[in-house]
Every structure is written in C-alpha cells, then in structure tokens.
Amino acid sequence: MTKTVFFEVQDWEENLLRNDFPDSQLIKEKIDVDNAGQFADVELLSSFVYSNLSSEVLQKLQKLKFIATRSTGFDHIDIEYCKKNNIVVANVPEYGSNTVAEHTFALILNLTRKIYQSVNQAKQLNFDHSQIRGIDLYDKTIGIIGLGKIGVNVLRIAHGFGMKILVNTRSKSDELSQKYQFSYTDLETLLRTSDIVTLHLPLNEATKHTINKNNIVLLKKGSYLINTARGGLIDTEALMMALEKNIVAGVALDVLEEEKELNEEAQILSERFREKTDFKTLVLNHILINHPHVLITPHNAFNSVEALNRIAHTTIKNIQGFINNTPINVVNS
C-alpha cells in the first residue's frame, strides 16, 4: 500500500480527500524541517502553499515519489531537487476562472441595477422607484483589461449580454476576436470609450497602478469601474478623486490596495492566513467602504462550492493518475 499523507488539510476538503484515500493520513499542520523526519516513509505527499518543501525538507523524505500541491503556484517546492531525485510534482492549474468572472458580473449588475440600494430600500418599506433606476447592459461597451483565463470568461459572459466589447491585453487571439466579435485597443481608448471597465491582470511592477491619477480622468463620465483581480492595480487616491469629481457612477471592488498580498486565493480560507490578517481594521480604515457609490466584497470572488471542489478533485485525479502511471498536470516533466 502506498503511504500517502495530506498536509494543511482544511475542514472543507477533509471528507473529499478521505472518501478517495481512506487509508491516507490527513494532517492540519504544514510539513517543515522540524517535523519532516516523522514522515520518512511517505511516498505520496500533498500540501498547500504554507509547506516549504525545500531540499532540506525533501532530503528527509527518502521514499517520496510524488507531490500534489493543492494550489496553482508551486514556488514553495524545490522543483530542481525534485527533478534530480525523480520526484514528480503536479499542481491545480485552474479552479476559479469562471467563478471570478461570474462574481465580476454579479458586481456589475449590482451597480448598474442598484440591487444593493433596492434591497435596503425595500427592507425599509420604501417603494419609491425614483432613486433606484438602473441601466441595461445590452449594447453598452465593456472594456476588459487583461485577457487571461478569467478575462476570457468575462468576455464570454459579456457577449451573452449583447454588449460591445473592447479588450486591452498583451497577447492577442484572432480566433477569440472573431468568435466574440470584439476589438483590441490601447488602454487610453478603452478608458475613454467604455461604459464599464473591469480589470483582470496579475499584480507586478509593470501592472501596479494600471489605473492611476493620470489616466483615471480619461474614464467616460458616468462609467463603472470593477476590480476583482488585485487591489494594487488601482491607485486608491486616484479612485477617490474620480468619485469626488463624479467621473464614475459606481465602483465595485473585491480587492483593496492595502490588502495582504496573496499567491493563492484559497489562502484566505486557511486559519494561518486569517490569524495574520486583520480584515476588520483593513476595511474600517478604508474610506471607500462607506462611500454611497462603492460596493466592496471581502475578496470573495473565488469562493464557490464548485471552485473549492475543483481544487480537491483535481488533486485527487493528479494522485490517481500518478498511481496508474498516467500522470497529469505535471510541472517538472
């Protein structure tokens, strides 16, 4: 029987893992240099991003043949050591692109149809419609900044709504543009033309403050700005200026600029992350939270039952594939 151990197991995934691997060990703690010696006989190992699988740790696992990280990223694993020692490593390449895209449109619809205000007004038995009149999405122009997997799903949904679509991205696909009938354009043109602007970029030195004081003034007056990617893509001071000058009609954010940086969205669900992050202070100190034209959700765009199940089920398939000599999602082949 293959010795299999899962580390950093959270409550939501325990039953799923136990069902497929009833003889495995499920451990809530991470594996590190201090406890690795206790698992010298492990052959198949699965962890999350807090387990630092360095060469120092891996050297203590002499029987290890396979690592299934329950994350997209694998920076916490010494890939070179694994290559040299014939340890196969597999990841979860994707689990929430449609999930985040759907949340993006939930925010768009909340803003454009004033859902939040409507619900609060109805609770107060106020049925005056004059302050809750919305706009149609049909035939409006949406500007998508970044066309990775999430951006493509936003594109797909926008096309279904009958929207006109502009895209600003580094890599272009003629096949996509023909299928969904959209145009590629520069950032300035997108900002000037779009009724709704939504960001779907990674955060790095090149993308930080993609929306800033210099270009936020280009936004079409009365437009809406959405960010479900990373808080640092928008300069918060620039955003406040746009709200004060009534350049934008509404803003929806699932991420904040001051938010602790993440490598994996699923980190938010871990006790270790929650212990280190004071969300309450972050939100209370953020002036945007009380602005009447701003909607903020607590970095929840990824958090669906289906997305979390995909993490567990992909990990299970990765392990089963290795056991059956048909490995999948291998990152060090």
Automatic annotation (TrEMBL):
Record-annotated D-isomer specific 2-hydroxyacid dehydrogenase catalytic domain positions: 15-332
Keyword match Oxidoreductase: yes
Residue stretches making up the D-isomer specific 2-hydroxyacid dehydrogenase NAD-binding domain: 105-301
PROSITE patterns in alphabetical order: D_2_HYDROXYACID_DH_3
Keyword NAD: yes
Entry's family note: Belongs to the D-isomer specific 2-hydroxyacid dehydrogenase family.
Protein name: Hydroxyacid dehydrogenase
Organism: Candidatus Roizmanbacteria bacterium RIFCSPLOWO2_01_FULL_38_12
Lineage, opening ranks: Bacteria, Candidatus Roizmaniibacteriota
